[in-house]
Design goal:
5 helices, about 0% strand, mainly alpha
């Protein structure tokens, strides 16, 4: 006979190890951020009551460009490497997945990305 735990207690028991692990990783990231040069200059300046750092204008364009390039690489890998491999392996099942009847509207895909 198994003892039934109330759902809130069960969820709490399952979340505690996850929160501890996340706190350890976040703490390590915060500890090593400034040592590696990957700090949070905007947030740190705001917390100290200082104006925005002058180097901000030099790092924002690099971040935007690298983010766009990473997104394009991911889309290209998916379109030209992963999708053909999946279609080749799944054969008939992949053609059923690609049918227009089950494709959601673009706005639904956009909302699903959040």
């Amino acid at each position: 006979m198994q003892a039934q735990l109330p759902l809130p207690l069960l969820v709490t028991i399952q979340l505690i190890p996850q929160m501890i692990g996340f706190a350890r990783v976040a703490g390590a990231g915060l500890f090593f951020a400034n040592q590696t040069g990957l700090g949070l200059p905007i947030l740190e300046a705001k917390l100290r009551g200082e104006p925005r750092p002058a180097r901000l204008r030099s790092i924002v364009p690099i971040g935007v460009i690298l983010g766009v390039l990473a997104g394009l690489v991911i889309v290209a890998l998916d379109a030209y490497i992963f999708q053909p491999a999946v279609q080749a392996q799944l054969d008939e099942a992949a053609s059923a997945l690609a049918s227009a009847a089950i494709r959601p509207a673009p706005w639904k895909g956009f909302l699903a990305s959040f």
